[in-house]
Design goal:
The chain is an alpha+beta fold. The chain has 2 domains: 114 residues, CBS-domain (Roll), CATH 3.10.580.10; 96 residues, Alpha-Beta Plaits, CATH 3.30.70.260. Helix content is 33%, strand content 27%. The protein starts with 13 loop residues before the first strand and ends with a helix.
């Protein structure tokens, strides 16, 4: 999956000839705090409402402002690169360009969350298991083996390794509604199961997923 696969058509770019007033109106209509600006198909900037307020001239043209270089990703970059950029800049949307620097569109943060939720089987029925362990003790093969001994399949797995910590937290989604047998097996092999959620509904799963993404500081 690349950035091109996540493109959204919900946000149309502005021109350098548009007024600051028009830019604010567009942001208000779309309920976003920034919007891409292009000139002859080239990305010029990602204009924020704060940029306009500091400029303090609603009738002035965007092109007359002192504009910052916009963060962006190339269309063929992996979705992990997209995640890194959102984490780095904390933006509601991210421009995408091609290798000729032509503007292609944006990726919205909400669209990225929807994609990640699908990849991680958030809406699939099953249980969640949280395991805490030392980073040097982590073995995906061993964990998968213990799951399969209980006829469980791993649908998705997220691993969080906090900076300057030797501990990691693993969130595992399995295809079983009742995780009790799996948890007993894990504890028998001295795994620290820090939490579990059986038969979690779709809405609850999505809420827990978004909370975990915030825990990861994405």
């Amino acid at each position: 999956m690349t950035a091109a696969d996540l493109l959204s058509n919900d946000v149309m770019p502005l021109s350098v000839n548009d007024s600051c007033r028009n830019a604010l109106d567009c942001m208000n209509d779309l309920r976003i705090s920034c919007i891409p600006v292009v000139d002859d198909r080239k990305l010029i900037t990602l204009l924020s409402d704060n940029d306009i307020y500091r400029y303090d001239n609603l009738d002035g043209k965007i092109g007359d402002m002192k504009l910052n270089v916009a963060p962006f990703v190339y269309d063929n970059q992996h979705v992990f690169d997209v995640l890194k950029m959102f984490k780095m800049y904390h933006l509601p949307l991210l421009p995408v360009i091609d290798r000729l620097d032509n503007y292609l569109g944006v990726i919205t943060f909400s669209g990225l969350i929807d994609y990640m939720a699908d990849v991680l089987s958030v809406s699939e029925p099953g249980a969640l298991i949280m395991i805490e362990m030392g980073v040097n003790d982590y073995s995906l093969g061993e964990i998968a083996r213990l799951m399969e001994e209980n006829n469980a399949k791993i649908l998705s797995l997220m691993l969080c390794n906090k900076t300057e910590s030797s501990r990691i937290t693993i969130c595992i989604k399995i295809n079983l509604i009742d995780a009790s047998a799996v948890i007993q097996t894990l504890r028998r092999f001295d795994y620290n199961v820090s939490g579990s959620f059986d038969n979690v509904g779709n809405d609850d799963l999505r809420e827990r997923f978004e909370s975990f993404m915030k825990f990861l500081d994405i």
